[in-house]
Structure formats: structure tokens, C-alpha cells
Amino acid sequence: MTNQYDYIIIGAGHNGLVAAAYLAKQGKKVLVLERRAIVGGSVVTESFGEGFTVDSVWTGGTLRPDIIKDLKLSQHGWIPSTEKPAFISLLSGSENLVLDSDPVKAAESIKRFSEKDAAKWPEFVAFMNKTAEFLDVAYATIMPRLPKNFSFDEGYGLFEMGLDLRLMGRKDVLNLIRMLPMTAVEFVEEWFESEQLKAAIASVAIHGATLGVMSAGTGYTLLHNWLNRGGLSHVNVGKAGEITQALANAVKSFGGEIRTEAEVKGIQVDTYTCKGVVLANGEEIFADTVISAVDPKQTFLSLVGPMNLPPEFVWKTQSIKMRGSVAKVHLLTDGNHSIPEGTVVLAPSLKYLEKAYDAAKYGEVSEKPYLEVTTMGNVVSVHFQFAPYQLKTGDWRLDGRKVEKLAIDTLTEYFPNLQSLISNSHIITPLDLETTYGLTEGDLNHGQLMLDQFLFMRPIPGWSNHKTPIDGLYLCGSGVHGGGGVSGAAGRNVVRVLK
Ligand SMILES: Cc1cc2nc3c(=O)[nH]c(=O)nc-3n(C[C@H](O)[C@H](O)[C@H](O)COP(=O)(O)OP(=O)(O)OC[C@H]3O[C@@H](n4cnc5c(N)ncnc54)[C@H](O)[C@@H]3O)c2cc1C
Predict the structure, then answer these.
(1) Is residue 16 lining ligand 1, measured as CB closer than 6 Å?
(2) Does ligand 1 come within 6 angstroms of the Cβ of 348?
(3) 3-state secondary structure at position 336
(4) Is 382 in the pocket of ligand 1 (CB under 6 A)?
(5) Phi/psi zone of residue 10: left (φ > 0), alpha (ψ -120 to 50 degrees), beta?
(6) pTM score, two decimals?
(7) Does residue 263 line the site of ligand 1, with CB under 6 A?
(8) Which single residue of 28, 47, 169, 359 could bond 23 by disulfide (Cβ 3.0 to 4.6 Å)?
(9) Bridge partners, residue 266, by sequence
(10) DSSP state of 76
(11) Looking at residue 6, what DSSP letter applies?
């Protein structure tokens, strides 16, 4: 039968493509189904008008080196940039804080705020790099299904992880365990005295999170983002499309198929056993194994349907915390915007950041937002927090322009000529993230990165090893352990479970 496959993968985001490429490489008959006309999910480069091409959603990052190597991505068009741009904190009334990737240069800038902090900077960078390595080991480990099913087979990975961590250094592991539940504020205050530096670092912890720098667990999100960026600053900015196109090329070169504009309407289930999928146009495609790279809420509540699942599982799925509060504002300028290259943040103080989050707690858009700005030639891209999906009053179908105005007005305070240079703009609201990019509640990571949704609790306790209550149905998107962000870990890990 031509519509029978070994594996069907739902969603051609980077994780779905990574899983598909590994399986196709093993010689399996693989089909990837993507509802949009382009592959990539959140890792896409799109055009919004003449000369207005931009990484529309994701800001930057890279895949894990083993994935790049295993899938021979350099032969398929992806060579990660070796450039490490600076991380720049905008400050009014003084020179900006410029944290160059070279710790010695960064220390020069920090010195203007505190000699003591400048002296500590190299030690801090080394600590973060080392600690992020531990997190990477954890993300490469398949979690056992605690509290149930803690068999030897399932628990072995955790045992190995413990051993690996132990060998990497007991003191450092303890530092990691201590850091994760801390607030970003508590953590940076242990290291530094200068407000400008503390706020710049803490801002990285709240990227994409509906949390404030004073929220517990932002020690973890700081480390997660440090790991995915390889430091403070975003890497590979402007190259989203290249990454996912190379992954798609790899899938095809190994014999896999990708179909775009092929929305899956349902996963076909017969008494807790997966049979295949049905598309929005009614077409049925069969496979004993279906891997969903779509977020867990959509996978279970829409595609499988609550009637096909145990009630307790449905309840737990409904309880997954998805709380998007990011909007993107892209501005086409004539190129004379004078915004420096690198990751430019508006994070002048810890209090400023916490207040920006306060608005989101009450369903309001921050009037004084946390902004992260990157440039791709003439285009200025603004990552805007906080713009909560759940608005107390208002409607995202109408309120996008408000966010755009706030972003431009705020940036104009630092770059006075910006406004006059803009010839086109494109805003992506949290609602657009849901409707266009398929992210439930606009949650970028398919579920908030919080300690109660971490390790064996991601996506829900008892189901953290990519398996589901449906035989033959697996998860591999950012909502499972190894995700979120762009690393490919979740897509790589699922393949190890299938063996
Ligand atoms: C605004 C924003 C900023 C971000 N910034 C960063 C960053 O700086 N660094 C970082 O590491 N990460 C960042 N992220 C997070 C990161 O981009 C995501 O976690 C990651 O891309 C998710 O990848 P994925 O493959 O798991 O899923 P996705 O990229 O979400 O892919 C899922 C795919 O499934 C498709 N799909 C959905 N439903 C169906 C269906 N029914 N049938 C068929 N296909 C379907 C979707 O169209 C999509 O292509 C950001 C995300 C956003 C939204």
C-alpha cells in the first residue's frame, strides 16, 4: 500500500524533522506531515514584503553538535556560524553595557560599573558553561516514567546520568542543584554587585517565559537559555530557514517524504492502539507508529481526542501550563537605524524587569516592556515581553498595533531616528503564534519551562519518556523532556526510545 508508512511524523518543526531524518537514515519508510506551506515551525525565515525577509519567530540558537554531525547537515546546507555576537544592555544616561563573547573584552565594559564584577566575570562565564554542560547531559537522558513504571530498563538512563554528572564533578553538580530552584535575582546577587550587570544577565532567564526575574525557578530558565545560546547572546540570527531547510534536505536525501499543506485532523486510534492519521481533507494514511511534534495539549485533546484516553491522563494534559506572553514586531527600515549588531536588550534594572512581568500577571500588556532586539540588515526584530495571550480586556485581533507602537516608542528613546526610518512593519501577536504557527496559547516551548514541568515531569508526570497511553503514539516536540528551544534534543531522543 502506498499510504502505509513505518513512521508518520506530525509537524515539520525542527524536532519533527530531526526525528524524521534519523529514522529515514535507518532505512525506515517515513512521512512528515506539515500543515503550513513551509517547513520549520518556529524556525522559519519568511518574507512580509519586498526587501522584508526575516526570521519571523525564533531569535537564534543552534542544534546540538551530535545532531549536526549524525545528519550530515553541512552537506545539506547548514554550517553553524562561528561568530559569537555581543550581548548589549541599553542604558540611558550612560554608555551601554557591552558583554562581548570574549570575557576579557566584556570585563572592560563591566569595569565601568564595577571593578569587582569585572574581575569575577571570567569565573562566572566558566561556571555557567560548566553547569550548562550538566543540563545538556540531563537533556540527552531518556527520563523514566516516575512515579509509576520505574523499571530497571527505564531507570538505567537516570542511573547513567547520575554517574556522568558525578564524574563531571561533585561540587559543580551541587551548584547546579542549588541554582535551579533559585530566582534569577537571588542567583545574580550571589555573583555581582552592579545593578546593570545583574539585570542584563537576569533578563536571559525570562526570555519566552511568563515569569519574572523574582519567580522561583528562573535559575533554571537562565541556565536553559544559556545552554541553547551557548552564552548570553543569540547565535545564528537570520539563519532560521537555513537550519530547517537543511534538516528537510537531510530527510529527503535519506529517502523520507515531506508533505506540506497537509494538516492532520485526527490520529486514528482503536482501543488504545494507534493506526495512522486522517488529514483535514479526509485522506487516511496508515502507520503503526505515529510521532507527534505538535504540542501535547493539541496532540491529545484535539488530534487523539479525550474519548480515546484515560480520564486522569486527560485531566493532567489539560493542566499543562501553557502561558504565552511574547509578541514579535518586525520593522523594515532604510538600514540607518544605528542599532548595534548582536542581542540588544532593554533591561536597565532588576526592578524594571519584574515590573514588566507584573503586567502579565494581571492580563495586561507591559507599558514598559522587556525588549530583545536583533537586526538582519535593514530589518529590526523586536521580541516583546510581556504581551499575555490571556488578556484581561481587549482582543488580540485588534490589539497588535498597540504592541507595535509601544515597541517603537520605547526604542525611539534610545534610537531617536528609528521611527522616521520605518517603511513597513509586521507584528506577530500571541494569537498569531497560535493560529499561524500552531502554538497553543502562543507558548513558545509547547509548555512553560518550570521546575514542575521539568525532567520526568515533562510533559506530565508518569509520561516523560516520549511514550503515551496510546500504543504506537509518541511525542517529540518541545513539550517533552529535552525541549524547548531549538536544540533538536527531543527529536533525537525519541528515536532512541523507538529502538
Ligand atoms: C517568539 C518565539 C521566540 C523564540 N525564541 C527562541 C530563542 O531565541 N531560542 C530558542 O532556542 N528557542 C526559541 N523559541 C522556541 C523554539 O523556537 C521552539 O521551542 C521550537 O522551535 C519548537 O520546535 P518544535 O519542532 O518542537 O515545534 P514547532 O516549531 O512548534 O513545530 C511544530 C510544527 O507542527 C505543525 N503542526 C501543528 N499542528 C499540526 C497539524 N495538526 N498537522 C500538521 N502539522 C501541524 C506546525 O505548523 C509546526 O510547523 C522561540 C519561539 C517563539 C515562538
Answers:
(1) yes
(2) no
(3) coil
(4) no
(5) beta
(6) 0.96
(7) yes
(8) 28
(9) 278
(10) G
(11) E
Least confident of 49-53, 321-325, 455-459: 455-459
- Measured from the Cβ of residue 395, the count of other Cβ atoms closer than 10 Å reads 10
pLDDT per residue as tens digits for the range 397-428:
888 999 999 999 999 999 999 999 999 999 99
Sign, CA dihedral 157-160-166-169, equals: negative
Which of 290, 434, 486 for mutating ligand 1's site (highest number of atoms within 8 Å of CB)? Answer: 486
Q: Which of 353, 384, 363, 369 lies closest to 218, judged by CA?
A: 353
Q: Check if the beta carbon of residue 375 is closer than 8 Å to that of residue 343.
A: no
Rounded to whole angstroms, the Cα distance separating 272 from 164 reads 37
Question: Which residues, in sequence order, are CB contacts of 174 under 8 Å at separation 6+?
Answer: none
Among 14, 54, 261, 294, residue to substitute to test ligand 1 (most atoms within 8 Å of Cβ): 294
Residues 6+ positions from 221 with CB-CB distance below 8 Å: 184, 205, 206, 207, 209, 211, 449
Element (H, E) at 157: helix 152-168
Q: Which phi and psi (to 5°) does residue 425 adopt?
A: -150, 160
Rounded Cα gap, residues 104 and 122, in angstroms: 7
Separation of 409 CA from ligand 1 center, angstroms? 29
Instruction: Using the mean position of ligand 1's atoms as its centre, give its distance from the Cα of residue 445 in Å.
Output: 7
CA dist list (Å): 443 to 162, 243, 326, 446? 31, 21, 8, 6
- Is 194:184 a contact under the CB 8 Å cutoff? no
The separation between CA 434 and the C-alpha centre of its own chain, rounded to angstroms, equals: 15
Ligand 1: residue whose CA is nearest its atom 49: 41
Question: Counting beta carbons within 10 angstroms of the beta carbon of residue 391, is it exposed (0 to 12), middle (13 to 18) or buried (19 or more)?
Answer: middle
User: Which residue in the block uniquely carries the three cell numbers 500577571?
Assistant: 361
Q: Is 485 within 8 Å of 228 (Cβ atoms)?
A: yes
Q: Is the CB of 41 under 6 A from ligand 1?
A: yes
- 3-state SS string over 82-131? CCCCCEEECCCCCCCEEECCCHHHHHHHHHCCCHHHHHHHHHHHHHHHHH
Q: If pLDDT is split at 50, 70 and 90, which confidence band does 322 have?
A: very high
Nearest CA residue ID for atom 22, ligand 1: 478
Q: Establish whether residue 226 lines the binding site of ligand 1, counting it when its CB lies within 6 angstroms of any ligand atom.
A: no
In the block, cell 518543526 appears at: 13
For the record, the C-alpha cell of 55 comes out as 526570521
Ligand 1: which atom is nearest the Cα of residue 298?
38
Q: Which of 33, 45, 58 to mutate to test the pocket of ligand 1 (most atoms within 8 A of CB)?
A: 58
Q: Is the CB of 483 under 6 A from ligand 1?
A: yes
In tens, the pLDDT along 466-487 reads 999 999 999 999 999 999 999 9
